[in-house]
Amino acid sequence: MMAENMLEIRGLSTGYGKVSVVNDIDVSVRPGEWVSIVGNNGAGKTTLLKSVVGLLPATGGSITFDGVDVTRVAPNKRIRMGMAFVPQGQQSFGQMTVDENLRVVADRYGAEAQSRYDEAMEAFPVLREFADRRAGLLSGGQRQQLSIARALITRPKLMILDEPTEGIQPNIVAEIQRSIRSMAEDKGIAVMLVEQKVQFAVERADRYYVLAAGRFIGAGDGGVGAVGEAKDVMRV
Per the CATH hierarchy, to which homologous superfamily does domain 1-82+157-236 belong? Predict the structure, then answer.
């Protein structure tokens, strides 16, 4: 039976060594729901995501994924359970072509390799045009699309995205936003992302939270009308 909340975080605190960065965070994400966390530089957004995926240990609280307590579970096991993490910075193998970048992930799935590859290409059709181009020669936006497509090949239950619009041209930002909405609505993937660009993060999300100095200072339902509200909270 699928858990009501794909991700449930209760009282989470984390940081680096003795330095606490994120404190007493509660947040949940249901299957097929897009939840955004917005905040300015230094708010603790990336630190929070790293703890969710297991790259930083929790110093307090708990993380439950698909009904299983994963607070002390290693990152690679969380990934095998169905988490996918797309870190900041358009990660790909620059000397490999777009096709090779996708196939190196898809080929792990044997008989399902081609269907998974095709699903990733369908999510970002522009990648077909550049299938034979080395990833290092793509624009920042195209590399980001490739990074998300690689993660989609794993057929995740939860997609975690860190600043997916950083350094990306506006027309591709809109394409990525549409693709994320489709992940949630059409594929039932739970989506959790952090962003500074409030319009991108909030206007098509289901819910949002505002993070400042490691704590939530505001929250609400997403939508076009919520963009101004979120910006106002960030300015407080």
Answer: P-loop containing nucleotide triphosphate hydrolases (3.40.50.300)
